[in-house]
Design a protein that fits this description.
Shape: globular
Radius of gyration: 18 Å
Structural class: alpha+beta
CATH topology of the largest domain: Glutathione S-transferase Yfyf (Class Pi), Chain A, domain 2
Number of helices: 9
Strand order of the largest sheet: 2-1-3-4
Order of helices and strands: EHEHHEEHHHHHH
Distance between the termini: 31 Å
Strand content: 5-15%
Length: about 220
């Protein structure tokens, strides 16, 4: 049964592959599963039909038969558990891959989101100049720890897994800040992930939505 996901009809990420449907698209591409996309406007995201799928009025959602899910991490986990390619067969290795999924969203992502949102929304606030360096240092602390753990390995734990997929999408949120470039092994890690054919297909699909919205 072909799954259906939701994505922004006009994404605020302007085609940079940062909207959270990217993780789900990428996961589906990695496991070779076709999927349909239902594009939603911001108004539609707050309407009853979408709220029945996602009580917080966000994207992505995932529908497969009678199952509906929200939260990109939960959706990627479902995909990984349903199809080979994202989670190891070995029980302990699988648990470690899931651990890294949680680490990406619960430990590494929060300071990155706080830093990027502050840069976008608080530049005119009187506390911005003093607060921003502290936020950046919190990000650097996490990246230093992650860099030390990755070392010279290609991936976080053995072969590429859903843990790497989630971690790379989090690191990409730093975008043009240049911070990831200060950690050469993390920059190489992101580049390796972006070189995967499945990532390229997912990015192209999301980019095509932006281009269609920009050139109606």
């Amino acid at each position: 049964m072909t799954a259906t996901i939701t994505a922004f009809k006009a994404s605020p990420d302007r085609g940079r592959g940062l909207a959270r449907d990217m993780q789900v698209r990428w996961a589906l591409e990695e496991v070779g599963q076709p999927y349909d996309v239902r594009l939603v406007t911001f108004a539609e995201m707050k309407a009853p039909a979408h709220l029945a799928l996602h009580p917080f009025g966000q994207i992505p959602t995932y529908e497969e038969g009678s199952l509906s899910l929200f939260e990109s991490g939960a959706i990627v986990l479902r995909i990984g558990e349903s199809h080979p390619g994202l989670l190891p067969a070995d029980r302990d290795a699988r648990s470690r891959a899931i651990m890294w999924m949680f680490a990406a969203q619960a430990t590494v992502q929060p300071p990155i989101v706080e830093l990027t949102m502050s840069a976008m929304l608080e530049r005119d606030e009187p506390w911005f100049a003093t607060r921003q360096p502290r936020l950046e240092q919190a990000v650097r602390d996490r990246l230093s720890q992650l860099s030390a753990r990755l070392g010279e390995a290609d991936w976080l734990d053995g072969d590429f897994s859903a843990g790497d997929l989630m971690m790379v999408t989090v690191l990409r949120r730093l975008g043009s800040s240049g911070i990831v470039g200060d950690y050469p092994n993390l920059a190489a890690y992101v580049a390796r992930a972006e070189a995967r054919p499945a990532w390229a297909r997912a990015f192209a699909a999301q980019r095509a939505v932006f281009e269609a919205a920009s050139n109606p």
